[in-house]
Design a protein that fits this description.
binds thiamine diphosphate, 13 helices, Pyruvate dehydrogenase E1 component subunit alpha, binds magnesium ion, thiamine pyrophosphate, 2 domains, EC 1.2.4.1
């Protein structure tokens, strides 16, 4: 007699769907720049709204110029940012100066708006050590290249802020690919257990280089990954500056009120290649998908919204563009004028006290460099 197969006492699909249902996408501005969620509207003054737009336009120009400079051989490593402005700039806009930023390699704009001079951002791109030295008043570390590693560091920094009684948060950014890494889970789990004031942003731009997000995980959203660690999560329209701002602002308030960390997934898209090192997006993305996302452009919809309020014009935008171009010209000149790094520079910044064997080598290089 054949053994009867036991039936599971739970419905897996129902379980997964019930979880996903709890993560609707927060949107405030639709693609036409119309407010579709008045209740979630953040309290931003007219000047703040204009400043947010100014930063997004400036960052788009910085991206375009960085791509050109890279093609001319005047920049090194560069990961394009166009398309992700709402996700990057509006999330940063909800922070305070004392907050600590732990970015990934695509998040140089947040560092710049946190106070990293453009010249240093260009030096970072060139692999110059000066690009990694944060000014004393900039609470940030240089962009992380190891996918997901910044999530564990952010948990630690946030715990440090808590122990010192600071009313500040640590914010970190990774991508959809980063959310598949072990470090991602370790970071959110630790921060949750210690109620550390951290904000974990996942910029889901649908691809980890060429791997589509559908192949990264069976989870229906990335936002829901927080719940197993006891963290609230929210999925946001990452092309909508107001929605991203509102989510991060609320997460920041929770964090500084001692309520612990939050996971925020922003649905976004990078228009350009993964980096300027040579991947060809046409081999893994369709033109239709590009067009679909370009219609959601964060600058277009925010511009329409501001124009509707009489806060923005072509003239203001052109002034921002000119200012950005001027600043970039100046900064790249300063980067060019920065002395090349030497072997002894690297040895000096690496150690507070140099080991004796390196001291010997140091003297040899000092001698060589003086010639
Ligand atoms: C631990 C680790 N594995 C692999 C890589 C190579 N790598 C660089 S970027 C990248 C994709 C990351 O994608 P995602 O997290 O979605 O971020 P995005 O580039 O889309 O912003 C990979 C696999 C790396 N840098 N570190
Ligand atoms: Mg990605």
């Amino acid at each position: 007699m054949a053994a009867k197969t036991k039936k599971a006492t739970f419905d897996l699909n129902k379980q997964l769907e019930a979880v996903a249902e709890q993560y609707p996408t927060l949107q405030i501005l639709n693609e036409e720049g119309e407010v579709v969620n008045e209740a979630a509207m953040p309290a931003l003054s007219d000047d703040q709204l204009k400043e947010l737009m100014r930063r997004m336009v400036y960052t788009r120009i910085l991206d375009q110029r960085s791509i050109s400079l890279n093609r001319q051989g005047r920049l090194g490593f560069y990961a394009p940012t166009a398309g992700q402005e709402a996700s990057q700039i509006a999330s940063h806009f909800a922070l305070e100066k004392e907050d600590f930023v732990l970015p990934g390699y695509r998040d140089v704009p947040q560092l710049i708006w946190h106070g990293l001079p453009l010249t240093q951002a260009f030096l970072f791109s060139r692999g110059h050590f000066k690009g990694n030295q944060m000014p004393a008043d900039v609470n940030a570390v240089s962009p992380q290249i190891i996918i997901g590693a910044q999530y564990i560091q952010a948990a630690g920094v946030a715990l440090g802020l808590k122990k010192r009684g600071k009313k500040a948060v640590a914010i970190t950014y990774t991508g959809d690919g980063g959310a598949s890494q072990g470090d991602f889970y370790e970071g959110i789990n630790f921060a949750g257990a210690f109620k550390a004031p951290a904000i974990f942003v996942i910029q889901n731009n649908r691809f980890a280089i060429s791997t589509p997000v559908e192949k990264q995980s069976a989870a229906k959203t990335i936002a829901q990954k927080g719940i197993a660690a006891g963290l609230p999560g929210i999925q946001v329209d990452g092309m909508d500056a107001l929605a991203v701002y509102a989510a991060v602002k609320e997460a920041r308030e929770r964090a500084i009120n001692g309520e612990g960390p939050t996971v925020i997934e922003t649905l976004t898209y990078r228009y350009g290649p993964h980096t300027m090192a040579g991947d060809d997006p046409t081999r893994y993305r369709t033109a239709d998908l590009d067009t679909e996302w370009e219609k959601k452009d964060p600058l277009v919809r925010f511009r329409k919204f501001l124009e509707g309020k009489g806060l923005w014009s072509e003239e203001i935008e052109n002034e921002v563009i000119e200012q950005a171009k001027e600043d970039i010209k100046q900064a790249i000149k300063e980067a060019d004028d920065t002395p090349k790094q030497t072997v002894t520079d690297l040895m000096e910044i690496m150690y507070e006290e140099m080991p004796f064997n390196l001291k010997e080598q140091y003297e040899i290089y000092k001698e060589k460099e003086s010639k």
